[in-house]
Structure formats: C-alpha cells, structure tokens
Amino acid sequence: MMEKEKVIIGMSGGVDSSVAAALLLEQGYDVIGVTMKIWPESLGQDKLKEGGCCSLSAVDDARRVANKLGIPYYVMNFQEIFEKTVIDYFVAEYQQGRTPNPCIACNKFVKFDALLKKAVTMGVQYIATGHYAKIEYDQGLDRYLLKKSVTAAKDQTYALYNLTQEQLKHILMPLGDYHKEEIRQMAQDLGLGVASKPDSQEICFVEDNDYARFITERTGKESPKGYFVDSEGNTLGKHKGIIHYTIGQRKGLGIAFGKPMYVIGIDAKSNRVILGEAGQEYSSGLVAAQAHFIPFDRPAGDLEVTAKIRYTAKEAKAVLRPYEDTKVMAAFDIPQRAITPGQAVVFYDGDVVIGGGIIERGIDNISE
Q1: 286 phi and psi, to 5 degrees?
Q2: Between the CA atoms of 41, 46, 51 and 53, what dihedral angle is there, to the nearest 10 degrees?
Q3: Is residue 53 annotated as part of the catalytic site, yes or no?
C-alpha cells in the first residue's frame, strides 16, 4: 500500500480553508491543519481585528474544524517574518506616499515561502490554502500555470501573481472549481460550525480600516503636515500628513475648493499632496517594477493582455511591454482611473495569469 502524500493546509478558521481541508481528505491526502500565528505580541491582542485570520477566535474555530475532520492541528509561529515583511513594509510604503497591498506581501513572503519551507523540513510534500484559484501543469510549456477560479466574484489570483514555478509545484488549491455557495453548502453538510461564518474583510491587522491611526501608533510619530499643491506647484492649502491620502481620493481632503478635486500625486520628499480637477486622475499607462511572470521568465516582446490595477478593479485591455531591468510598461486601450503607486498590477490572458508587478507610476506618454 502506497503511503499517502502529506499536505499542510493553512487554516484561518473560515469556511473556505475548512472545506479545502475536507476536500483534500476526500482526495486521499494525509492532511495536517496549521494556523499561522502572525500577530506580533508587542502590538497586543486588543489591537487585532476580531474574527480576522490571526485572531484567537480564528484559532479556536480552526481547531474545532480539525477535530471534526479528525486531522492533526498545530499553531505555528511566523510572527517575526510577518512583522518584518508585511507590517514594517506596510508602514514604510505609506510613509513614502505609496499605497501597499499587505495581502500580496503576506502571500509572497509568509504563506507561500516561509510555510512551504517549514513543510519541506517536516517531510511534507505540499501546502494548501482555501484560495479561489487553480494551478495546472502545462506539458507543452513544461510549466505550472495559475488560472482564475470558476467564480469571477471570488477569484483571488490577483494576490497570487508572485508564485514561482517551484512553489506552484508544491501548492494545492482545491477550491478553484467551486462557487462560494457550494462551499458553504459543503460546510453545512459536513456539520462544520463555520458554515455561515462571514468572510473576513479588509486588512486583518488594522482596526476599523484606519490605516493612518495604525501607522501613527506603530511608529509613535504623527505624519508631518504639509501643503496641497496643484499640478503647476501652486499652493492650495494644508494637508494633515501624507499617510492620510491615496491616489484618486476626493473625500476627506479637509478643505473646500468649490469644485471636485482629486489626489493625483503624493510627493513624500517635499511632503506635498498634488491635487487635480476631474479627469486629471486618469492615466493612459503605467510603469511597474519587480515584474514577475508565470508562463515564461520574461515576455520577448509586446503582449496583448487584460490588466487589473487593484484587487477590486475590472480588467482592462492593455499592451504589456518589457521595460528596463525588471520593469514593464502597460498601455491601456482606455485611460484608467487612479493608477496608484504601491498597488499591484496583474496581467491576464483569458483565465491564465501572465504575471504582475508593483506600480511605480502612472504615465500618459507610453513611448517615453
């Protein structure tokens, strides 16, 4: 009798990872449940969003599910790497006038790097998550591909574009062929107490989605006040600190202009927030750094793709163009609103993830 292949399933205490664990059992794997302890104790449990993937209640829910499924369950400590690669990064990006996506950093450095390395040391062949995405091996390309989930509303490939071939080889994502309603029904049929548990929203470590307050408490410093200026450099008034603003923002500027004004740029060096009138928040293209690709190492030339400039954005037709070093350019068929430095842009060919990068800036002259 062949020994079952072992898989560590990251369990957040939610319905998705719980059903993913059940599906892996059904598929014949030797399943081990793990919750990653990532919340730094120095910040205190009282600052942790209740019900978030790092909370005490999440651990309790995950343990109950593991017991119900009859699988071993452990809590593993990844606090140090999470603090360094996610929280410190999040704070530093805002201080530089950029708007980061901490979930992408967490996936890249913690879930699919640190956890996978831990699995290898334990003699475990795979790690698995409850992400809505699909991993398939393409024989013609001799590469693993990341593909969209069957449910567009829940597809999570945007946050997974950094996965490498070596990682994809050892990752299982059993939910890619299911709709959310089916997952909840499965959980109910299995008698799992998390069947109707709401999905976690926003960033797990930021209370009430108040980024500025979190950064101020974390650093012990107020973001210095500065000036709003227009695109010509004319002073328009005072701002309360650059961490309070993001590209495309119109509300909450704290000053009335008699007409709608939008944040179109943040200059951390001069501590200025640049405002523009309606229409100026659109750009016809972008430059992205730290580009990573999945079906190939790097595009040989221009590619017609669709692109998402943030998790909630709709895909837009674009031409992807190799640029200097590890950068790429994207020229959109239709100008896009609020292209935001620090956010990821992810490129697709149909349901296949081509890759992505971190937006450096929006541009209007794609031939630059």
Answers
A1: -155, 160
A2: -20
A3: no
For the full predicted model, state whether its pTM sits above 0.70: yes
Does the active-site annotation cover 54? Answer: no
pLDDT at 51 over 50: no
> Choosing from 53, 54, 103, 106, which is the catalytic residue?
106
Active-site hit among 53, 54, 103, 204: 204
3-state secondary structure of 208: helix
Structure-token match 């071993």, residue found:
72
- Residues 6 or more apart in contact with residue 258 via CB below 8 angstroms: none
Comparing CA positions, the residue from 357, 354, 353, 312 lying closest to residue 336 is 312
| Token digits of residue 341 | 């430095």
**Cβ 126 vs Cβ 5: under 8 Å:** yes
Three state DSSP letters for 170-185: CEECCCCCCCHHHHHH
User: Which structure tokens are listed for 136?
Assistant: 């398939």
pLDDT tens digits for 127-150? 999 999 999 999 999 999 999 999
CB 78, CB 28: distance < 8 Å: no
